[in-house]
Amino acid sequence: MLYRFDDCSLDTDRRELRRGTELVRLEPQVFDLLVYLIRNRERVVSKDDLIAAIWGGRIVSESALTTRINAVRSAIGDSGDEQRLVKTFQRKGIRFVGAVREEQPAVATTAAAAVAAGPAAPALALPDRPSIAVLPFANMSGDSEQEYFADGMADEIITALSRCSWLFVISRNSSFTYKGKAADVRQVGRELGVGYVLEGSVRRGGSRVRFAAQLVEAANGAHIWADRFEGELSDVFEFQDRITESVVGAIEPKLLFAEVARLKQKPASSLVAYDLYLRALQLEYEFTKESLDEAIRCVERAAAIDPSFAPAMALAAFCYAERAFQAWAKDYKAEVAEALRLANRAVELDPQNAEVLWMSAYPITFLAADHARAKELFDRSLAINPNSPMALTMSSWAEINLGNRALARERLARARRVSPCDPHEWKISMTMAMADMWDHKFSESVAWAERAIRQNPRALPVLRTMVVSLVHAGRREKAVEIVQDILRIDPKFSVSGWQRQRAPSYRENNPRWQFILDAYRAAGVPE
After folding, report:
1. Secondary structure class of 212 (helix, strand, coil)
2. What is the mean pLDDT of residues 363-388?
3. Exposure of 76 in the CB half-sphere (CA atoms within 13 A)
4. Distant-in-sequence, close-in-space partners of 50: CB < 8 Å, separation ≥ 6
5. Cα(295)–Cα(311) distance, rounded to whole angstroms?
6. Are the beta carbons of 256 and 247 closer than 8 angstroms?
7. Residues in Cβ contact with 61 at an 8 Å cutoff, skipping those fewer than 6 apart
8. Beta bridge partners of 232
9. Three-state secondary structure call for residue 138
10. pLDDT higher than 60, residue 267
11. pLDDT class of 261 with cuts at 50, 70, 90
12. What is the DSSP letter of 85?
């Protein structure tokens, strides 16, 4: 069904939202929430209705629900102040109040309808090497709580394949935009620009697990390889290796043994710790205060079970850093110290793990401002896995602070190509905004920041960058408005507080320190 309202069109079959001709990227849960509100627009839907429909009845905090509602409003050009399209009824619920016109996409064949729907996304050119996208594995367990396990298995296969430097692998974030959709592999191939697609399913019951996977040539839908793997949960790592070896062998047999032998070190001897790690990855992806709190609890439990489990330590350090930058830290100085301790320990334990290296480098560059050390870790991570959009994006921040903005832009372009449909594309746009700000391209910086904010209106680093660029672009009144948005998220935000939270080395080595402070003061940030 195609729903048209305001300047938007929502296609539920293609799972696409457009504002005018621009395609708006949405997290799957936010998309589902928007669809539910539109389909139930004749009534006020309660919090219980939303939790039952979108979260399957699981416990959801008030702030997590509010965050999703705000994301819906932002995506369709609405806000909590205006409530033109999504209206809140105190103690009752919310309702979609915009005028909606329903159409069947199949009959919209006129030239006018085609223009209104916006241009089709052009097919991406194939890379100059074998390329593959791993679609999210279907959860066949009949238990929604096992979604994280199915997603984690697909993620592990992506990571393993990414270690083949000759193979171009689409990132998890882009391939997972097809989650819950009956995707045609030929369409996937065109949209992601790959020659092969791997799809499959996971069924987990008690200590038993069953994988089914198939490799398809995207151009014609021809099946190249398929197999099933069944056994005890303790065999899960062997299954992953066998699937990876079979896929690589089907694509490039002559490189099978040379490139795939022991593709990756097993992440933990304890499957309980590994299970907690997978849960934490899923929680971090939600990027809310509650989800980051719970993710940290999960990885701390994992590290307690297996003190040598470096990925859990690195993920904890990463989550602490994200929590600090979002003003969600409970004890800022203590959490910064813990993040840096965990990051350094994780690198000591597993110095050849690409994910450990970039996750550990993140707090080192953001919290300690040790950009040279972070660059070393990022470069090592990218040497092991050149297909990681997060390593490419986060390393660009360190390069910007080292004055290497041309290299930063090159890496950001690579990140976007590796992950062309990434729901977390806002991090790429955020970093581009930072690069343009330091180059005094203030209008361009504002444009990138606005793009990031449309996807994640609660990301404080983006909002702060936007304030600085707006002031220096001569748009002080707009900067003052953005400061108010920041203060709603972080009521304690102030010039002196921001200075105290910067690492001393950052202040000493950053000649443009005053450049930022002047902008904050001009925009009305409390002293």
Report:
1. strand
2. 87
3. 32
4. 33, 36, 65, 93, 94
5. 13
6. no
7. 288, 290
8. 208
9. strand
10. no
11. very low
12. S
- pLDDT tens across 485-497, in order? 999 888 988 888 8
Residue 479, amino acid: A
Pair type for strands 168-169 and 208-217:
unpaired
- Report whether pLDDT(71) > 70: yes
- In 3D, which of 269, 319, 270, 310 has the Cα closest to residue 292? 319
Cβ pair 89, 95 in contact under 8 A:
yes
Asked if 504 contacts 473 with a C-beta cutoff of 8 angstroms, the reply is no
Per-residue pLDDT reduced to its tens digit, 128-144 = 667 888 898 888 877 77
Edge-to-edge strands, sheet with 22-24: 22-24, 16-19, 8-11, 2-5, 101-103
Residue 406 burial by Cβ neighbours in a 10 Å radius (0-12, 13-18, 19+): exposed
| 457 φ/ψ angles, rounded to the nearest 5 degrees | -70, -5
Which amino acid, one-letter code, is at 235? D
The Cα 426–Cα 482 span in angstroms is: 17
Pairing assessment for the beta strands 196-205 and 208-217 based on DSSP bridges: antiparallel
Question: Domains plus CATH for the chain?
Answer: 2-117 (1.10.10.10), 131-260 (3.40.50.10610), 269-400 (1.25.40.10), 425-527 (1.25.40.10)
Those residues with Cβ within 8 angstroms of residue 55's Cβ, 6 or more apart along the chain or in another chain: none
DSSP tag of 45: B
CB distance 135 to 175 below 8 Å: yes
In the chain, the amino acid numbered 173 is N
- Judged against a pLDDT cut of 70, whether residue 145 lies above it is answered with no
Contacts of residue 523, defined as CB under 8 A and 6 or more positions apart, other chains included, come to 467, 470, 471, 476, 479, 480, 482, 483
Closest CA to 425 of 462, 461, 452: 452
Q: Token pair for residue 285? A: 């992806």
Selection from 60-69, 126-135, 305-314 with the highest mean pLDDT: 305-314
> Under DSSP, is residue 339 helix (H, G, I), strand (E, B) or coil?
helix
Backbone angles phi, psi at 88, to 5 degrees: -95, 130
Dihedral (CA of 177, 179, 182, 185) sign: positive
d(CA 463, CA 449): 7
pTM, two decimals, is 0.58
Query: Around 167, how many Cα atoms within 13 Å sit in the side-chain half-sphere?
Result: 32
Side chain identity at residue 56, one-letter code: G
Q: Are 100 and 8 in contact (CB under 8 A)?
A: no
Instruction: Judge residue 518's burial from the number of C-beta atoms within 10 Å of its C-beta, 0-12 exposed, 13-18 middle, 19 or more buried.
Output: middle
